[in-house]
Amino acid sequence: xxxxxxxxxxxxxxxxxxxxxxxxxxxxxxxxxxxxxxxxxxxxxxxxxxxxxxxxxxxxxxxxxxxxxxxxxxxxxxxxxxxxxxxxxxxxxxxxxxxxxxxxxxxxxxxxxxxxxxxxxxxxxxxxxxxxxxxxxx
Length: 138
Fold this sequence. Notes:
Blueprint: H1 3-14, H2 18-22, H3 26-35, H4 38-51, H5 55-66, H6 71-87, H7 89-101
């Protein structure tokens, strides 16, 4: 997996759990920790253990934790992870192996917050409708 793709996947996976990993806002961190399954939590911790300690990555991660839905904050984190992985091919290989060994259901993005929806894997034949005052007619 190339570093750009890997950085993108890592940001998508880690963004919702960064408050927990960074212990920002204990209430939010506790909620994320409850919603995240054990295998996914272990993977998130393993990935973050290898990324933390790099000042630019940590700074961008704190921004994402504070503004998890901000695409600019996510893009900044993605860029910092990409730079790190480009500079450190051994780390890139290690993270690629961790990511690819994890089961698909563990690598699923977690939906956290009011009105959030997340699907792990395929949802053939299922319809998901969100919003207020929706009506389904046949």
